[in-house]
Design a protein that fits this description.
Helix content: over 70%
Number of helices: 9
CATH class of the largest domain: Mainly Alpha
Low-confidence stretches: 30-77, 82-87
Largest sheet: none
Radius of gyration: 45 Å
Structural class: mainly alpha
Number of domains: 2
CATH topology of the largest domain: Methane Monooxygenase Hydroxylase, Chain G, domain 1
Length: 300
């Protein structure tokens, strides 16, 4: 073959290759511009793209519909998590009521403890301490009384019994605080000094009362039935001292120390409220009340 023929063939081949590359490039760009799928070419056949991808259906959905297709993003907190948090909150609320009721025991005990200093030394600090205890007991009783109705609807029978016991206990403890405050007011209003024997007997009654409150506090803390039994027995000791003080004043036919008798009566009544606490502890542990023992069946 001649050299001129070779050059002609080479030129024709170059022109064909250039045309082929131009067509391939044009066909590659055409689907992207038109938004169509083109499958006429494949890499194995000299093309650049085998299959142009189709736009997904979700890409043409309105923004509002896209949000609706992802429910996990529209609900930030599952209902189960809300229920768990509500349960934890209610449990904490119940525990708070129980702790508050136990705190009332300590406050009432402190009020009785300061009674000794008030009777022996007419201490102004002791009077203010008793007054503060009485105010705190009032606040605690209102706190539990306001929150217990809602709390008791979310618990079982055993826990409901505990909550009712807390309410009854705070009522008795608040009454003890009132009685101690009445004694403190009478001591402060006296213009004459009490006799040493009167002071000694009143202090003895207050000491027994304080020991009773200490026992019943630990009884509720540890659910100790023996503590309830001891408190019920110790109430007789307060009654014995109180009756002795009344008998001595009545035999002496003196009315000028009538307020001393009222002080002794207030401390004795505080002892009765403490026995109520012991009965509540017994009922909480045994599940039955000492105030209403079961009737015995008649023998047939």
């Amino acid at each position: 073959m001649r050299s001129s023929d070779n050059l002609t063939v080479i030129g024709i081949s170059a022109i064909c290759n250039g045309a082929l590359m131009f067509c391939s490039h044009f066909l590659c760009k055409l689907p992207q511009v038109a938004g169509l799928r083109y499958s006429g070419l494949s890499p194995s056949r000299g093309g650049c793209i085998a299959d142009m991808p189709r736009k997904s259906a979700t890409s043409r959905i309105a923004p509002e519909e896209q949000v609706a297709t992802h429910p996990a993003e529209t609900i930030p907190i599952p209902k189960r998590e809300i229920a768990k948090k509500s349960l934890r909150k209610s449990t904490q609320s119940l525990d708070d009521l129980a702790r508050t009721a136990l705190k009332a025991f300590l406050i009432a005990r402190d009020a009785v403890f300061n009674m000794r200093d008030l009777l022996t030394h007419s201490s102004r600090m002791a009077f203010l301490a008793i007054k503060e205890c009485e105010q705190e007991l009032d606040i605690i009783e209102r706190y539990i009384d306001d929150r217990l109705p809602a709390a008791i609807t979310r618990v079982n029978e055993v826990r409901a019994r505990q909550l009712l016991t807390s309410l009854k206990c705070t009522t008795d403890l608040e009454r003890i605080g009132d009685l101690m405050m009445s004694v403190a007011m009478r001591v402060q209003s006296r213009t004459e000094k009490m006799s040493a024997l009167d002071v000694r007997q009143l202090v003895e009654m207050a000491a027994i009362l304080r020991e009773m409150l200490d026992l019943i506090y630990h009884g509720f803390l540890e659910l100790d039935l023996e503590a309830a039994r001891k408190v019920l027995q110790m109430d007789k000791d307060i009654d014995h001292v109180c009756h002795g003080l009344f008998q001595r004043h009545l035999t002496e036919h003196t009315t000028q120390n009538f307020d001393v008798l009222l002080m002794a009566q207030a401390i004795e009544r505080a002892g009765d409220h403490t026995t109520n606490l012991a009965e509540d502890l017994y009922s909480l542990i045994e599940g039955r009340s000492l105030r209403h023992p079961p009737k015995k069946r008649a023998a047939t």
